[in-house]
Amino acid sequence: MKKVIFALLTFAALLSACTTSDNAPASGTRKVALFLTDAPADADHFGKNHNPWKRFTAVNLDIASVQYVSVDSISKDSVIWKDVPFAPQTYTVSLLSNGDSLFLSEFNIPENQLVRKIKFKLGKNSTVVLSDNTVKPLIISDKSDSTLIVHVRNNVPKGTYSIMLDFDIAHSIILRKDGNFYLKPVMRCFVRETTASIRGFVLPVKLATKVFVVVGTDTITTVSDIKRNNRFMLDGFTAGTYTVQFMPLDSTRVTRTKSVEIKKNRDVFLGGVKVID
Q1: pLDDT at 204
Q2: Core-most of 88, 169, 171, 240, by most CB within 10 Å?
Q3: Where would I find the beta strands (DSSP E) of 10-159?
Q4: Which pLDDT tens digit goes with each residue over 84-125?
Q5: Are 268 and 260 in contact (CB under 8 A)?
């Protein structure tokens, strides 16, 4: 029996070694991984007087292709787009929040270069799922809206790193007077290794709560997950002081605020945050 166990362990070690070797970047290059996450939609985005059924519960984003631009540390921006290894498919992005993410692809770049831009080409099969489970097409109004370019900042100068692509659902979907939903994608990105997260859980544990931070003209938002101890996680912060605001979904006002200091790329855990007295 001991011999069998030893043989299995030896085989597992060899398999692990082979896997590590296959995934290692080629000499003179470094690996960049792409992940997709999203900022959950604000239920009031369509206006307070809209019927609840018009609010959506899921968004299926059809991504046709992904490209990138990389430059060395002293060059000006390049205009040469390179393809990311990627098979066209549809992603349910509205289920990715509070630290959840989906692996898109990975590729190698020269070790002295940085990724400056990521470009998405969207397909024609994106849809939105309403709260009554009705599926509506997301219409792209013109050709320019089918392409989305995201600028990458706070890069890692050396080694492997991960780029998180945060799809802003609330500001990407427009409900027009004709009753149709239109897709005009808005996305931000951040490098996980050079930024930090703010996380914790909301009390009471059954009170779904919008948690957000206003950074300049942007709002980084999530909704606490009552299925997982009402946890929340906001990501992509550089060093600085931020005000975290908490607004229960059944309320129209902020009921609690927290001041948070981010030091370099050190994550902050707030523990349990009581949002109502």
Answers
A1: 94
A2: 169
A3: 29-39, 56-72, 82-83, 89-92, 102-110, 113-122, 127-130, 135-139, 147-151
A4: 999 999 988 765 566 567 889 999 999 888 999 999 999 989
A5: yes
Q: Which two tokens stand for residue 9?
A: 């362990």
Q: Given the DSSP bridges, would you call strands 56-72 and 113-122 parallel, antiparallel or unpaired?
A: antiparallel
- Tokens 């205009």 locate to 79
Q: What is the spatial distance between Cα 8 and Cα 2, in angstroms, rounded to a whole number?
A: 10
pLDDT of residue 224: 87
pLDDT digits (tens, 9 = 90+) for 124-171: 899 988 878 889 999 987 656 788 899 998 888 888 999 988 887 777
C-alpha 42/C-alpha 55 separation (Å) is 9
Residues in CB range of 51: below 8 A, 6 or more apart: none
HSE (side-chain half, CA atoms, 13 Å) at 125: 8
Spatial distance between the Cα atoms of 114 and 226, rounded to a whole number of angstroms = 39
89-92 vs 56-72, strand pairing mode: antiparallel
Nearest to 197 by CA among 211, 208, 207: 211
Which residue type sits at 47? G
Sign for the pseudo-dihedral over CA of 98, 99, 104, 109: positive
Long-range contacts of residues 153-160, Cβ cutoff 8 Å, at least 24 apart: 153/190, 153/191, 154/190, 154/191, 154/194, 154/195, 154/238, 155/114, 155/115, 155/191, 155/194, 156/191, 156/193, 156/194, 157/73, 157/114, 158/30, 158/111, 159/30, 160/25, 160/30, 160/31, 160/32, 160/33
